[in-house]
Design brief:
Blueprint: H1 38-41, H2 77-89, H3 111-117, H4 120-123, H5 135-152, E1 156-158, H6 164-181, E2 188-192, H7 198-205, E3 209-213, H8 223-229, E4 234-240, H9 252-261, E5 265-269, E6 289-291, H10 294-297, E7 312-314, E8 326-329, E9 335-338, H11 340-343, H12 361-397, E10 415-417, H13 428-437, E11 444-445, E12 455-457, H14 465-484, H15 503-508, H16 519-524
Parallel strand pairs: 2-3, 2-4, 4-5, 5-6
Antiparallel strand pairs: 1-7, 6-7, 8-9, 10-12, 11-12
Helix pairs in contact: 3-12, 5-12, 6-7, 12-14, 13-14
This protein binds pyridoxal-5'-phosphate.
Length: about 525
């Protein structure tokens, strides 16, 4: 086995019986270079720049002077550049290939967005600058707010929440504040079983008790069961529309009416707004609060943990409770920030702040750029093409792969499949790993929980027919192998830099700090 210069095996996945790739002495595969950790490849006595020795001065650190080496890896400039470039080649992103993650809306982020977001007037300002020096930036926030209100048919919008889940918390806190203002102590939030995990988490975090709403046979909320559960203890419902099975909740208006009649509020998870933007206004369906993931529907780069932005549109009933600060445009075009310190008495019922400042400026700029470059008609076409692409995937697979709700009609922007017909012992995980070998990032797997071995594919509107056709070819081929019981699939991926990892262990017990390996102990083994 080959070792790097710290005595670590370079073939760290250590999978025996590697049927397709001969191992190399370096660990490199063709021009894909194996990269050691930066601590392993650097040495403390090397440095990329010459720094003049610091003049002797009297320390003012008291007893806090460091007495050991700082321990940073020392590399020259070209070594540093190569290190990060090699790592970047092992990274998969939307600019590299198709990203069919259902519920994530991984669409192309136009370069124009980036150009606008980097303009110094947006990128180089500080949130504590006087308001009159940042009128342009506040103008972007205000204009985006106007677009979001128009597109959703709602009354107000809270721009500051920094992700979908954060928006959910904001909306639920507004519902809580509205109930408190009415002097009511309602404790229950109803959530369908198919909901994204963030929905029950947000409700519980805000102090509510979560109860499931059952689904009917065609994957939608069971209206009769919901109505039967409504009562004076129910604060509201959280419903995703289109839902996580990729279906439009046709009874949404009836659901809202019933919930309102029972004195509750309707939260809509708007993460799937991409499927209906420009075609449906949630305000017309009786929604009281809905977050919009700017980083999904309105492009802006996401993945790898951020950044996100989750503005929440609010009904007339909930708007008075929305968070501070928000922008307000005067007749003369001037924009101000409504904050506690300056205008608090005009907004006495606000739940307060969700963030320290005004939200994610870069995401706002990208999202507004996206809207203005598409125009209203273009945004409508976004939804139409996203739905068309998803149905193309659905209809191209359903003869081969179980699609639990396909008989109920077309899907929205994502297609849902199950592992029903896989051979004994073959799982959705095997299929996902097989797709990696074919050069595709896997789809969302095992979500929603209501479908066994779920595979949720969302192509988005920015994929060409050729790209989707290639994915379908690969998807069909791996499904055929899973159905035929091709043992080799259990070992996939064979061609990835790393093979099958223990993902549970990595998530539960991540090793985030490097420590020097004990070379003598390893050599003795
Ligand atoms: C993405 C998503 C969320 C959460 O949004 P974040 O921005 O990741 O916090 C909530 N619900 C659904 C249905 C989603 O797809």
């Amino acid at each position: 086995m080959s070792m790097n210069n710290m005595g670590r095996p370079t073939n760290i996945d250590g999978v025996a019986n590697d049927r397709t790739s001969a191992s190399t002495v370096t660990g490199n595969k063709a021009l894909m270079l194996k990269e050691a950790l930066i601590f392993e490849s650097g040495s403390p006595d090397r440095c990329g720049v010459d720094i003049a020795p610091a003049p002797e001065t009297e320390s003012r650190l008291g007893g806090l002077v460091r007495d050991a080496d700082i321990g940073l890896p020392g590399l020259s400039e070209p070594e540093t550049v190569r290190h990060y470039t090699r790592l970047s080649r092992q990274n998969y992103g939307i600019d590299l290939g198709f990203f069919p993650l259902g519920s994530c809306t991984m669409k192309h982020n136009p370069r124009l967005n980036e150009k606008m977001a980097r303009l110094p007037g947006f990128a180089d300002i500080h949130p504590m600058q006087p308001v009159h020096t940042v009128q342009g930036a506040l103008g972007v926030i205000n204009e985006l707010a106007v677009w979001l209100i128009k597109l959703t048919g709602m009354h107000g919008v809270a721009m500051t929440p920094k992700a979908g889940a954060h928006g959910e918390l904001c909306g639920i806190l507004c519902i809580k504040a509205a109930l408190e203002a009415r002097g009511e102590d309602r404790k229950i939030i109803l959530v369908p079983e198919s909901a994204h995990g963030t929905n029950p988490a947000s409700a519980a975090f805000a102090g509510f008790t979560v109860e499931d709403i059952p689904a009917n046979a065609d994957g939608r909320v069971d209206l009769a069961a919901l109505k039967a559960r409504l009562g004076p203890d129910v604060a509201g419902v959280m419903i995703t529309n289109p839902n996580t099975c990729g279906l439009f909740e046709r009874d949404m208006k009836a659901i809202s009416d019933a919930v309102h009649e029972a004195g509750g509020y309707v939260y809509c998870d708007g993460a799937n707004f991409n499927a209906i933007v420009g075609r449906v206004r949630p305000g017309d369906l009786g929604i009281d609060a809905m977050h919009i993931n700017l980083h999904k529907t309105f492009s802006t780069p996401h993945g790898g943990g951020g950044p996100g932005s989750g503005p929440v549109v609010l009904s007339e009933a909930l708007s008075p409770f929305g968070p501070l600060p928000f922008t307000e445009r005067y007749e003369d075009g001037h924009i101000t920030l409504v904050e506690e310190e300056t205008c608090g008495e005009r907004h006495p019922h606000s739940i307060g702040r969700m963030t320290a400042f005004h939200g994610q400026m870069g995401m706002f700029t990208r999202a507004l750029t996206y809207m203005l470059s598409h125009g209203a008609d273009g945004l409508r076409q976004v939804a139409e093409d996203a739905v068309l692409n998803a149905n193309y995937v659905l209809r191209s697979m359903e003869d081969l792969l179980d699609a639990p709700f396909a008989s109920a009609g077309p899907c929205m922007h994502e297609a849902l499949f199950s592992d029903k017909d896989f051979a004994e012992g073959f799982s959705t995980l095997d299929l996902a790993k097989g797709l990696i070998d074919e050069g595709f990032h896997p789809m969302t797997v095992y979500f929603p929980l209501v479908v066994h071995g779920a595979m949720l594919v969302e192509p988005t509107e920015t994929e060409s027919k050729a790209a989707i056709d290639e994915f379908i070819m690969a998807f069909r081929s791996v499904v055929e192998r899973a159905k035929a019981g091709d043992e080799a699939l259990h070992g996939a991926p064979y061609h990835a830099p790393l093979r099958r990892l223990d993902e549970t262990l990595a998530a539960r017990k991540p090793v985030l700090a490097w420590s020097e390996p004990d070379v003598t102990a390893e050599a003795a083994e």
